[in-house]
Design brief:
Blueprint: H1 3-10, E1 17-21, H2 40-43, H3 53-58, H4 60-71, H5 82-92, E2 96-101, H6 107-111, E3 118-120, E4 123-130, E5 136-138, H7 139-147, E6 162-166, H8 175-186, E7 190-194, H9 206-212, E8 216-220, E9 233-235, H10 239-251
Parallel strand pairs: 1-2, 1-7, 2-3, 7-8, 8-9
Antiparallel strand pairs: 4-5, 4-6
The structure holds zinc ion (ZN).
Residues 130, 132-133, 135, 155, 157-158, 160 line the site of zinc ion.
């Protein structure tokens, strides 16, 4: 089976492409993934506790560690890579329906993807959110308080516990965001899952939504995923070169 030939034949036909991106697209930018061989949770399973809402709310020490970890997060100094840039090209060519991202690093927008096209299904680390009143504050403002000595900066409006505006384990996804993601999966003719292990629901199930509504499915990931059998093409090559090649094929600008 000559997969690239097949891709070259049908990629140019895709007019509305929805991309699901996971941690693997940001590893080239120096942000470690969670479940890969060098993943944060592979190497330190206890780190996952910091991402559990129950532990976060009940244990001040978990919150203190979480704020330090946010302040020291590699995303603050990270630059978007060729994978992010390829999706900007796809959007400029008028072929991108949406990017549904599991990433919280904001690198799609920093690369130049239109904010209205990026659906951050797991939220963003670039804002803080009060868990009591919902007030959102740019994260750098809260981290400035951490730098000034506050170990667990509380909401300036109501005194509630604040957290990054991300979805922790035990927290429900925002309904409007999930609806937008499902809509983007159902209304595309090609769904590309890139750099995600497709083990976290409901994000992973978007592959099925797309396929059931007639879209072709391409999976780009270093490791096997539970949806590989459903895919029209599975690519294991590095994302930083594979995604630009696919976008080139789709837009007729590359080989
Ligand atoms: Zn508040």
């Amino acid at each position: 089976m000559d997969q690239p030939q097949t891709l070259a034949q049908w990629l140019p036909e895709a007019q509305a492409i929805t991309v699901l991106s996971g941690a693997g697209i940001s590893t080239d930018s120096g942000i470690p993934d969670f479940r890969g061989p060098q993943g944060v949770w592979t190497k330190d399973p206890a780190a996952a506790a910091m991402s559990t809402i129950g532990a976060y709310l009940s244990d001040p020490e978990v919150r203190r560690r979480a704020w330090r970890s946010r302040r020291d997060h590699p995303a603050w100094d990270a630059e978007p890579n060729g994978g992010h840039a390829a999706l900007v090209d796809l959007e400029r060519a008028g072929r991108l329906r949406a990017i549904v991202t599991q990433n919280i690093d904001g690198l799609h927008q920093r690369a130049g993807s239109g904010p209205e096209r990026v659906i951050e299904i797991h939220g963003t680390m670039r804002d803080a959110e009060c868990l009591a009143c919902g007030l959102r504050t740019p994260m750098p403002e809260v981290l400035a308080r951490v730098d000034a000595g506050e170990e667990d900066p509380l909401c300036p409006e109501c005194g509630g516990i604040q957290k990054s505006a991300t979805i922790s384990f035990g927290q429900a996804l925002k309904e409007d965001v999930l609806d937008a993601a499902i809509g983007a999966a159902r209304s595309c003719d090609l769904f590309v899952a890139v750099g995600t292990s497709l083990t976290v629901q409901p994000a992973a199930g978007l592959c099925l939504e797309a396929a059931e509504h007639g879209a072709r499915l391409v999976i780009i990931n270093a490791q096997p995923t539970p949806y590989d059998g459903l895919a029209d093409a599975v690519l294991r090559e590095p994302i930083g070169t594979t995604l630009p090649r696919l976008v080139g094929l789709a837009c007729g600008t590359g080989a």
